[in-house]
Amino acid sequence: MIRWNIKDLHNGYLNKEISPVEITKQYLKYAEEINPEMNAYITIAAEEALSTAKSLEKLLMSGGKIGSLFGVPVSIKDNIDTHGIRTTAGSKIEQDRIPERDSIAFSRLRKEEVVLIGKNNMHEFAFGVTSENPHYGTVKNPWNKEHVAGGSSGGSAAAVAAGLSVVSVGSDTGGSVRGPSASNGVVGLKPTRNLIPPQGTKHISWTLDHVGPIAANMTDMAIVTGVLSDDKNLSTQLIEDLRGVKVGVPTSFFNEQLDAELYNFYTTAISQFESLGCDIVEVELPDISDFFDLTLAIAISEAGHIFKQVMSNKSQIALLGEDLKVYIEQMGSFPAYQYIGSMFRRDEYLAAFNEMFESIDLLITPTLPKTPQKIGVKEVLIDSKIEDIFHCMNRFTAVFNIVGYPALALPCGITTKNLPASVQLIAAPNQEGMLMKAGYTYEQNFLHEFYKTRDAICLKTGDLSLSLGDISK
Predict the structure, then answer these.
(1) I need a surface site. Which of 63, 235, 249, 379 has the fewest CB within 10 A?
(2) Could you give the residue numbers annotated as active site?
(3) What DSSP letter does each residue of 199-263 carry, written as one string?
């Protein structure tokens, strides 16, 4: 499989060098071949994809105007509604659910004429960081299939890394787009809160949830984010110029209880941004030591309302995976005063971060404290301290769901165990353009070799187009 990107597909279609049907059949054949091992998809929408591709091909041959994502093979996390295509949220309870309308996110992609290859596997109802799904199988990491792909949008990130789709869309409550993106060596964005409308997405928490894209590179990221946010000008921010950009480096928290090798990649990335003309500024963080308690109180309280019918139905509870049953039992256990107090504390977080960002343009942190773990691992060891994997893999990401700031996970290296490392760039609200510019500049200067190695590891070799003798049938 080769790594297609949006611009190459667009130009290939316009020049009649490739066709939507040819490309769609290539992706479907590839998915059918490797998904049984990867478990990146719950549903492969072959009939829908081919029907769409044939319609697009007719439009192309007629000389009609084509959309910015014309014929681009995409995948969508299975908690985001797609009209007429099964959407399970990774659960057995909703295994037969077929939405009657598109989510707003997918409706915007459909308007730009994407081809939906399928719905991505995920942690059940998005309650987890590993995408070990008891109903649809564990999503395997294409870097090393003994390791998890992260969660809860693990299928989305694994699909992009493995070339099963060009881009994907996931959801992020405490890091569920950025963690899997870091784990799979791709680019993931949690945008400003509600920049991409969440309607049509199965929530955990309306306060913390964000819909966000995953891509293999920054150009694709800017294009698809522009479509999803209804801001086509984002692509104009892909300029290699970071001179004078003030990058804040936290003096605490994000440099604590961090894998030593990932710490080295983090400090190297800081130096690399400095070499690109950024002004590196040390910043003192506000007190965020209660981030996990705060996240849990908000998420579980709001989830209790969303899942109240499941909570009261013993037959439905019996259909849940064992880890999710633990959270269901907690729902309803947080008193109203604790939830209200957590929302007031969230306001304090937001005020403190707003003040901090008055003196910086970006904040840089590691995305994860640890690389993706082997399948089945429940605890991690860092600096002689044992930590629950759920807490660990949300530790550097969840705070930005609390404040709603945009955050970008960006690859920055490969560890000695051949797993990807990632840094996280955070900007002020509605400053996605700054993230696009910073990510693109870093990518163009430092990630070419990383991408070559990633694709050599993650993409199955061989040109599937040579075996597509039935394209014209």
Answers:
(1) 63
(2) 77, 152, 176
(3) TTB--S-TTT-EEEEEESSHHHHHHHHHHHTT-GGGGGG-----TT-EEEEESSSTTSS--HHHH
Neighbours of 295 (CB within 10 A): 24
**CA pair distance 131, 133, nearest whole angstrom:** 6
pTM for this entry: 0.96
Phi-psi region of 5 (alpha: psi -120 to 50; beta: other; left: phi over 0): beta
User: Could you read off the pLDDT of 86-104 as tens digits, one per residue?
Assistant: 999 999 999 999 999 999 9
**259 close to 371: Cβ distance less than 8 angstroms:** yes
Assess whether pLDDT exceeds 90 at residue 182: yes
Q: How far is CA 149 from CA 21, 123, 128, 462, in A?
A: 30, 10, 12, 24
| Residue given tokens 């996931």 in the structure block | 170
The whole-chain average pLDDT of the chain stands at: 96
Residue 323: which region, alpha, beta or left (left: phi > 0; alpha: psi -120 to 50)?
A: alpha
Query: Which 3-state string (H, E, C) describes 55-97?
Result: HHHHHHHCCCCCCCCCCCEEEEECCECCCCCCCCCCCCCCCCC
Q: List the beta bridge partners of residue 364.
A: 425
Residue 35, exposed/middle/buried by CB under 10 A (0-12, 13-18, 19+)? buried
The greatest distance separating any two alpha carbons of the chain, rounded to the nearest whole angstrom, comes to 65
Question: H/E element holding 426?
Answer: strand 420-427
